[in-house]
Amino acid sequence: MTDLITKGFHHVTMVSGNAQRTVKFYRDLLGLGLVKRTVNFDDPTAYHLYFGQERGAPGTLLTFFEWAGLPHGRPGIGGVHHVALGVADEAALLKWKRWLNDHHVPTTGPVNRGYFKSLYFQDPDGQILELATKGPGYAIDEPAGALGQQVMTPNDAQLQRSPEGRLYAEMTHAEPVASIGADMAIDGIHHISAITADTERADRFYSSALGLRRIKKSVNQDALNMPHHFWANYDGKTVGPHSGWTLFGYPENWNRVRGGVGQTHHVAFRAPDAESQAAWREALVAAGVGVSPVMERTYFKSIYFQDPDGLLLEIATDDPGFAVDEDPSRLGESLALPAWLEGEREQIERSLVPIV
Ligand SMILES: [Fe+2]
Ligand SMILES: [Fe+2]
Question: I need a labelling partner for 73 at 20 to 30 A (CA). Which of 13, 144, 261, 336 fits?
């Protein structure tokens, strides 16, 4: 369809039931930067909050629409199952476990997923989150130059229900953690896991539409008869950072996702600039994919389309970035509005509950 290859995720957008609570969780408890507070450009009565690192670098961005009155959603086919953020190593994972538990956030794990080690928890709206270690990586069971060739199954000791797995899940950091240290730094999106009814159809779509390559055919370690396949930006040698896209293959008759609070709204992949995004759009249209016009999002330009399961996807440009309308050292401190909404600032500010 296109020879354009995405480097990986630009951002993922989730639905919050309460902006202040979301800020407390992601900024104050997870230590992410609030890099932009603005409104949903398509619904200016609602907050759109961006969290990330390095002044909003693509691949590190978690964004939230606040829709306070919306009911909770429900996971299902065409939805995202969970969002995983990267940490350096097992020591960091255990410190995070202690930190979260001491702040009354229950966790599951650590769990040895083979390719990485994982800790699971939920945000205040019920969005499932994971922290995953950088290593040991996808080359533990097949050569780095030939990933994704055969079905790989976990060894028994890895499984959560095994005696080893149960023992491993009891580990935590021995001492209380006083603050989020540099050794605990969260390195953006490690992977995002969604739900498909057909992994082979998904492979054709994601390889042709986004240039992602399948790097692992595995099974869901918590339900061994369920396929769990991984895609990424992969040049045949290395797997690019912030690009792990995984799909659980659910039976076709399983329920469809219901959007709402605690669910992911859409997932955005990167294009370097407007020119390649335009070429991308043309290629998608030529392949019969229904694509939106280019939308001006101030910090990037966007196009939207759906995957074959109905999941909303976006391709967003790297430029111009988040310093376009604020001092880069003071990102996210005050409400930023696009030029076409400045005239309504007073009214918009009155309708929003202030965030501290
Ligand atoms: Fe995961
Ligand atoms: Fe988006």
Answer: 336
